[in-house]
C-alpha cells in the first residue's frame, strides 16, 4: 500500500476492536458487585471466568518459594540483570523537593511526596508477564511508595504463574492477590475484606481491565487506558528484512488485535519483507495469533521518501517505533510522536521489553501525541509551597486586589486589603 492510501486508512477507518457498550455494561455490573459483596464477588467471578474455586485470595510465602524452584536459576539471573538496568534508568527520573527565593521576603517551592499505595495489574490469560512486574514495581519503589500490591489472574491449578511470582519476589513485593479481570481493578479501587484499597492502579490488561480502569478513575488514579500493542518500523535499503520481519512478528504474537506496521522507501525491501514474514510465520509457536494479527492489522507501506514516512509515523503515533535506517540518530528530530524509539538494526523492540532499562509501559492507540511512558514521576504527587513576609505581600497587594475585583471576587480582594491596612 502507498503512503497516501495508509494515511487515508488512518484518518477514515480506525478499527473498533470491541463492542464498547457491551463491555461497559458488563464492567459496570462487575464493579457494583465487588463494591457490594467484596471477597464473595471476587471468588464467584474467579470461578466464572477462570474456572477455579479459590479458598484464599492471597499468595502464600510457600507458593513464592515453590515458584523460585520451578523457574530455575537462569531465569532468576536474567531477572536480576533486568532489575539492575531498569533501576539504573529510572533512578535518573527522581524528582526533588525544591525551594527558591525570587525576591526579599518571598519563598516559593514544590514539595514532592510519594503516593501512599499502588496496585499493579499483571495480565495472565494468553501469556504471563514477569517483565510487567518489574516495569511497574521498580519506578514505584524508587519514587518511595511504601504499599505496593500486585493482582493477577490464576492458572488452571489455582496458582499464580511462577515466573510472575519470582519477579515479584525479586523486587520485594509480598502482597499478591489471585484476582484478575475487571473485578481485580474494582477490588483495588474500593477495597474488600482481603484486598486493600489503593490510591493508584497501574498496569496493562485486556479490554475489560482497561474499561474498569476508566470507570474507577476519579475515585482512584490510573496510569493510562492501554490498547493493543503496536510496532511501527521505518526502513530504508540498509535495513535487514529478516530482522524487520522478526520484530514485526514479535508484536503480532501479543494478541490478534496487535498491529505491526512497516513503512519503507524501497519496493525491493517491501517484497523481501513480505516473503520473510510468511516464512517466519510458518514456524512461529503462536502462529494462529500472529496470522490473525498480521491479516487484520499488519501493513507494509511504501512511501516516496523518508520525509513522507516520518509524517505517517507522527500521525500514527505508535507505541514502539524502530528506525532501521542509515544514521538513525540524525533522523531522531523528525519524530514527534512515539512511545519509545529504537535506533538501528540492532535495537529491536524486544530489547526494550525486557532488559534495556526504559519502561515498556507505553502510550498506545495514538496517545503518544500527548502522553509519556510510565516512570517514577507517575508515583509521586507535587504540592506547591508559598511564603510571603508582610513587607513582600504589601508590595504586590494592589495588583492582587485589582485582579480579584476584576473577577468579581471581592472577598478575595478583602483578604488582601485587610492585611494591607495592618
Walkthrough of the structure:
This protein is of the alpha/beta class and 422 residues long. The chain has 3 domains: 20-222, Nitrogenase molybdenum iron protein domain (Rossmann fold), CATH 3.40.50; 228-369, Nitrogenase molybdenum iron protein domain (Rossmann fold); 389-421, no CATH class. 48% of the residues lie in helices and 16% in strands. It has helices spanning 3-12, 20-37, 39-50, 61-71, 73-91, 130-143, 162-170, 181-190, 207-216, 241-252, 267-282, 287-297, 306-316, 328-331, 349-354, 390-406, 410-421, and strands at residues 98-103, 106-114, 117-121, 147-151, 175-177, 200-202, 221-222, 230-235, 259-264, 299-302, 320-324, 340-343, 380-388. The strands form 3 sheets. The chain has a 5-stranded parallel sheet, sandwiched between helices. Helix 6 (130-143) packs parallel to helix 7 (162-170). The longest helix has 19 residues, at 73-91. The chain is globular, with a radius of gyration of 25 Å. The relative contact order is 0.14. Zn(2+) binds at residues 251, 254, 353, 412. Belongs to the histidinol dehydrogenase family.
Amino acid at each position: 500500500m502507498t503512503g497516501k492510501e495508509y494515511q487515508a486508512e488512518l484518518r477514515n477507518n480506525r478499527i473498533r476492536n470491541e463492542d464498547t457498550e457491551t463491555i461497559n455494561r458488563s464492567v459496570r455490573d462487575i464493579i457494583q458487585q465487588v463494591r457490594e459483596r467484596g471477597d464473595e464477588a471476587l471468588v464467584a467471578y474467579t470461578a466464572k471466568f477462570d474456572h477455579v474455586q479459590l479458598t484464599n485470595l492471597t499468595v502464600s510465602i510457600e507458593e513464592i518459594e515453590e515458584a523460585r524452584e520451578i523457574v530455575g536459576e537462569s531465569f532468576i539471573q536474567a531477572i536480576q540483570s533486568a532489575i539492575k538496568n531498569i533501576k539504573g534508568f529510572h533512578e535518573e527520573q527522581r524528582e526533588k523537593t525544591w525551594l527558591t527565593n525570587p525576591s526579599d521576603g518571598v519563598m516559593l517551592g514544590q514539595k514532592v511526596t510519594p503516593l501512599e499505595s499502588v496496585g499493579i495489574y499483571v495480565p495472565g490469560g494468553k501469556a504471563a508477564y514477569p517483565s510487567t512486574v518489574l516495569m511497574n514495581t521498580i519506578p514505584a519503589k524508587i519514587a518511595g511508595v511504601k504499599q505496593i500490591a500486585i493482582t493477577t489472574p490464576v492458572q488452571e491449578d489455582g496458582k499464580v504463574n511462577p515466573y510472575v511470582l519470582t519477579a515479584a519476589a525479586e523486587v520485594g513485593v509480598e502482597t499478591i492477590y489471585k484476582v484478575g479481570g475487571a473485578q481485580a481493578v474494582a477490588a483495588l479501587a474500593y477495597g474488600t475484606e482481603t484486598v486493600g484499597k489503593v490510591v493508584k492502579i497501574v498496569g496493562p490488561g485486556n479490554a475489560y481491565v482497561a474499561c474498569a480502569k476508566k470507570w474507577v478513575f476519579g475515585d482512584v488514579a490510573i496510569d493510562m487506558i492501554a490498547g493493543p500493542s503496536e510496532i511501527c518500523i521505518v526502513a530504508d535499503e540498509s535495513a535487514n528484512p529478516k530482522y524487520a520481519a522478526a520484530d514485526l512478528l514479535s508484536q503480532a504474537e501479543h494478541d490478534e488485535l496487535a498491529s505491526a506496521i512497516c513503512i519503507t522507501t524501497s519496493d525491493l525491501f517491501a517484497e523481501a519483507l513480505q516473503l520473510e514474514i510468511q516464512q517466519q510465520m510458518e514456524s512461529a509457536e503462536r502462529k494462529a495469533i500472529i496470522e490473525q494479527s498480521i491479516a487484520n492489522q499488519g501493513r507494509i507501506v511504501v512511501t516516496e521518501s523518508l520525509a513522507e514516512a516520518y509524517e505517517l509515523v507522527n500521525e500514527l503515533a505508535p507505541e514502539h517505533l524502530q528506525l532501521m535506517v542509515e544514521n538513525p540518530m540524525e533522523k531522531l528530530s523528525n519524530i514527534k510522536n512515539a512511545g519509545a524509539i529504537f535506533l538501528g538494526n540492532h535495537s529491536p523492540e524486544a530489547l526494550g521489553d525486557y532488559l534495556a532499562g526504559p519502561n515498556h509501559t507505553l502510550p498506545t492507540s495514538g496517545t503518544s501525541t500527548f502522553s509519556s511512558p510510565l516512570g517514577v514521576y507517575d508515583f509521586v504527587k507535587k504540592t506547591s509551597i508559598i511564603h510571603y513576609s508582610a513587607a513582600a505581600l504589601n508590595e504586590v497587594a494592589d495588583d492582587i486586589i485589582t485582579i480579584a475585583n476584576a473577577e468579581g471576587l471581592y472577598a478575595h480582594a478583602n483578604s488582601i486589603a485587610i492585611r494591607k491596612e495592618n
